Amino acid sequence: MSPLSPAPDPFAAFKAVQREGWSHFGPRAIFTTPPAARLVRFARITAGQRVLDVGSGTGVTAITAARLGANVMGTDLTPELLAQAAENSRVSHVDVEWRVADVEALPFGDAQFDVVISQFGHMFAPRPDVAVTEMLRVLKPGGTIAFSTWPPDHFTGRMFALTARYAPPPPPGAMSPVLWGEPGVVRERLGDRVRDLVFERDMMNINTLSPQHVRHFTEHTAGPVRKLVESLSGSDSGKLEQFRAEFDALAAEYFEMNQMRQSYLMSRAVKA
Ligand SMILES: C[S@@+](CC[C@H](N)C(=O)[O-])C[C@H]1O[C@@H](n2cnc3c(N)ncnc32)[C@H](O)[C@@H]1O
């Protein structure tokens, strides 16, 4: 590196790994489809509103909002998922504009949207203060911000915490995604930039044959877990076996009647 080259950005490298991991998320959207309808209803989206969806994935929330007649911009870090989202909008006969975008640097001017939503998306940005400042910047005053997040004390939150214990440390300053599932943290992060903050909990069910099936599917489809298993497979099979045993024990706590049942948090506020 020449003395004049800029220092490498650790967050850019972190996001490149995340992007690769999330590119395999597609089959998992079968489970995020019912919560998408609940978030769109919770956000009180109506026809004609200009809506930004952050971390759209395969487009479940963006398309649900567009089917109500909203004018939707769907964004995500991962281009492979947006290609699937575009196919899903074609199948649904709705127009949604799709754009690759990092929530920490949204490519839109100030106060462009009536509603900004994110379902289990913005929570994965490593710097929550940067992400939420961007989401509020592009929202009109009086507009609605609404998102769904995984709490730290339910299956998915605990599963991401378990994964983080085995994974290489994130860049200094990166925060755990599941802190977004704590109402107190959400309140603090939004602060006095919003009013009328409300919370609601709902349930997400995963149909599955065994706790081991949950792990098998998650290893293939959930970005951070996929990347961890890839790296341990090549380097430390003992640690991988230990991770898998801990995962199965955790999944077994939530497994009943061939379903995993877990609660998640929805938050909604109005930009002051
Ligand atoms: C759990 S998936 C949720 C996808 C979709 N919203 C759903 O509910 O099916 C997380 C999504 O967040 C996206 N994501 C992660 N970090 C992001 C970032 N910094 N900016 C934008 N999207 C991001 C991933 O690419 C992935 O599509």
Please tell me about this protein's structure:
This protein has 272 residues and is an alpha/beta fold. It has a domain at 10-151 and 171-203 and 263-271: Vaccinia Virus protein VP39 (Rossmann fold). The protein is built from 10 helices and 8 strands. It has helices at residues 10-22, 29-42, 60-67, 79-92, 128-137, 155-166, 183-190, 211-221, 223-235, 237-254, and strands at residues 50-54, 71-76, 96-100, 113-119, 139-149, 194-207, 255-256, 259-271. Strands 1, 2, 3, 4, 5, 6, 7 and 8 form an 8-stranded mixed sheet that branches. Helix 3 (60-67) links the parallel strand 1 and strand 2 (71-76). It is globular. It starts with 9 loop residues before the first helix and ends with a strand. The relative contact order is 0.15. Bound molecules: S-adenosylmethionine.
Rg, rounded, reads 18 Å
Helical content stands at 40-55%
Spell out the CATH superfamily of the domain at 10-151 and 171-203 and 263-271. Vaccinia Virus protein VP39
Low-confidence stretches: none
- Average pLDDT, rounded to a whole number, is 96
Strand content: 15-25%
**What's the total number of strands?**
8
* CATH fold node name of the domain at 10-151 and 171-203 and 263-271: Rossmann fold
SSE string, helices as H and strands as E: HHEHEHEEHEHHEHHHEE
CATH domain class of the domain at 10-151 and 171-203 and 263-271: Alpha Beta
End-to-end distance: 46 Å
Identify the overall geometry.
Answer: globular
Task: Describe the largest sheet.
Answer: 8 strands, mixed
| Small molecules bound in the structure, each named once | S-adenosylmethionine
